[in-house]
């Protein structure tokens, strides 16, 4: 894939999601507190918020070729029918992307007020004794 091919960015995004899935499978020092989830969900919200536009723009090469009468379907298939199927599926994908965006934004909003109750956790206690 050349450096000028926009699909390379989708490949990089997919690789980033794969890496996230791999590293977030268990808790660790950098993935244990509600603030970590809030940050992760915020990044996920940003990513899924761009999916609808990415879905729209991913079909541009097909539509450009179709509008110029140059789409050919294997086995002498019907280009009009296949492009109609593509457009219908694109609409479904756009609606799903919009619904996913809304749901992930609700997740982000829900985690916003969450924090860690440090009561009784030694590493979070003050070094100085409390005076009552």
UniProtKB/TrEMBL annotation:
Q: Which UniProt keywords apply?
A: Plasmid
Which portions of the sequence form the region Disordered?
Answer: 111-132
Q: Where is the composition biased (Acidic residues)?
A: 123-132
Descriptive protein name: Uncharacterized protein
């Amino acid at each position: 894939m050349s450096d000028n091919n926009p699909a390379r960015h989708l490949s990089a995004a997919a690789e980033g999601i794969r890496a996230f899935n791999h590293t977030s499978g268990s808790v660790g020092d950098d993935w244990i507190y509600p603030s970590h989830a809030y940050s992760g969900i915020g990044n996920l919200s940003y990513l899924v918020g761009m999916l609808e536009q990415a879905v729209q723009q991913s079909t541009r090469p097909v539509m450009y070729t179709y509008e110029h009468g140059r789409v050919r379907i294997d086995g002498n298939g019907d280009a009009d029918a296949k492009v109609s199927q593509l457009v219908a599926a694109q609409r479904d994908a756009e609606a799903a992307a919009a619904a996913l965006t809304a749901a992930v934004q609700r997740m982000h909003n829900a985690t916003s007020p969450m924090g860690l109750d440090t009561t009784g956790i030694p590493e979070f206690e003050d070094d100085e004794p409390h005076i009552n």
